[in-house]
Amino acid sequence: MNIANQSSTYVCSPEYSFTGDQTSSARILVGINLCFCFIAIVGNVMASMAVFSTRRLNLSYHYLLCSLTVAELILALIGQPLLLALILAQLNSTCIPALQLAFRLIANFAATASTGTVTLIALNTCLYVCGKFNYTNTITSRKKMAIVVVWLIAGVICCVTFFSDVTFSTLLWIVISFPCYATVLYQVHLHQKNRSLSSHQNPADQRNKDQSKNETPTWQVACGIIMILLLLSLRLLPTFLFKILKLGKRFGLLYYTLVTMAFLPSAFYPVVYCLSYHNYRRALNRVCSRINPFAVKHDNETEETPKGDVGQELQSSIESAAV
Question: Do β-strands 94-95 and 10-11 pair in parallel, antiparallel, or remain unpaired?
């Protein structure tokens, strides 16, 4: 971009200005961003209330969910409002390089941290349901270090993008996540198939029958996994295709549209990862009952703890990451 002067704000050249039909499209894009920004903020705030108020602090999924909600809140509270400011400024034929720099810095950092955390959730669930390497669902110092490493990698990738376009680094998350969730789905199928065979071979074993009825069907787990992978692809593929195909500069309407698509998962991640899990729903209801003066408070309500055999623990882990 040719800068006409050295000021921090200047009039955009015609190729970066919205004209004609582009003006209407840009205003529609502003409305879409406003709507989904509001939904993302409300959803992630509710998810944060549920996560940080629960007492189950020893599960690795709890720490991973904390990392995910923090990253998504950064995107919803800072990244998307900066995108709105960029579009509104360009609607007025004004270019603000400092604003674009801040947007790219924050959006790249938070999006990479979020995607890396999603990949860790997939890897954590895969290793747990496979039952290999004596892997447990509790948090360890190594798992905490893995979360820290993800945020450090996000910072490194964010800095590197300002010197050279890193186009294939984002595909690393997909390369890890897709096989992990495919393995999880396969293990769920085997687990429920074995439980069904055991129930048929031992009709008198009513306990196994009851557990089989309470378990999430394989097709529901598959739908949850497909939704997770679709959201992950929606987060990564638009901007990846923009970079790899060199479709234009980072000031055009196409770029803003693709970035808006990459922000959409922030509105759905809280439902997929947090509010669909019954323990966090109960924690959120408990917090809301304290805020609402007209709600009936239950002092004796306690947090549900995982009990029972390996099958129940497997189901709890699958619900927490795939429902």
Answer: antiparallel
Residues β-bridged to residue 94? 11
Q: Which amino acid is at 51?
A: V
> CB 208: neighbour CB atoms within 10 A?
19
Question: Are the C-beta atoms of residues 295 and 274 closer than 8 Å to each other?
Answer: no
Asked whether 42 and 35 are in contact (CB, 8 A), the reply is no
Say how far apart CA 49 and CA 53 lie, in whole Å.
6
Residue 86 CA to residue 253 CA, distance in Å, equals 11
pTM above 0.85, yes or no: no
The DSSP line for 176-203 is HHHHHHHHHHHHHHHHHHHHHHHHHH-T
Q: Which residues pair with 95 in a beta bridge?
A: 10
Q: What is the per-residue pLDDT across 39-83, written as a single tens digit (0 to 9) for each?
A: 999 999 988 888 888 866 678 888 898 999 999 999 999 999 999
Q: Pick the residue with more confidence: 264 or 195? A: 264
Structure tokens at 267: 């509105």
Note whether 181 and 126 are within 8 A (CB).
yes
Give the whole-angstrom CA distance, residue 50 versus residue 24.
39
Structure tokens at 147: 């979360």
Nearest-10 crossing angle of helices 310-322, 97-130: 160
d(CA 173, CA 120): 9
Which residue stretches of the chain are H helix? 21-53, 60-74, 80-91, 97-130, 141-160, 171-201, 206-214, 218-245, 253-263, 265-269, 278-291, 310-322
